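Figure 2 data, in text form.
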Amino acid sequence: MKISGNTYQPGLYRPNNSRITSTRPEEQSPSHFTKEDPKVWKQLARQYDITHASFAEVKTVARKLYDAKQISFSDFAALTFNPQEGPQWKSMTKGIKNPRWWLTEADSSGKRNWVAEWEARAEQQRKLGNPSGAKKDEYLAQILRGLLK
């Protein structure tokens, strides 16, 4: 038997105790989301009004949910992503009058309804013909709905 470097095909080893789960939106559905530790959710719901919160508050909530293993890293990243805070925002939006990332309006203190924001994003994705993006955004809205009192 001749063994050649060209025929070597290593298999993917995944231990049985692996907690790797899919973060692909098309494999997730609203029923995929469950509150594993109700105490964490209740405590955060008492501390924060997710329907009237700043982006800094949303980042704090998302971090606490992630640290408590209530949401995935993918969910944490999506909830805390804001290109307006990045160094490229000005160059990316040069020449665009009043560029904005968020779809819903904030009040004078910078607070907005984050459930409505993610619902608006889901609707935008549906209009753009992106069902998997719409599903992921709706899933994120459902996570935030878990913080409603």
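Caption note: Residues 8-32 have pLDDT under 50 and may be disordered.
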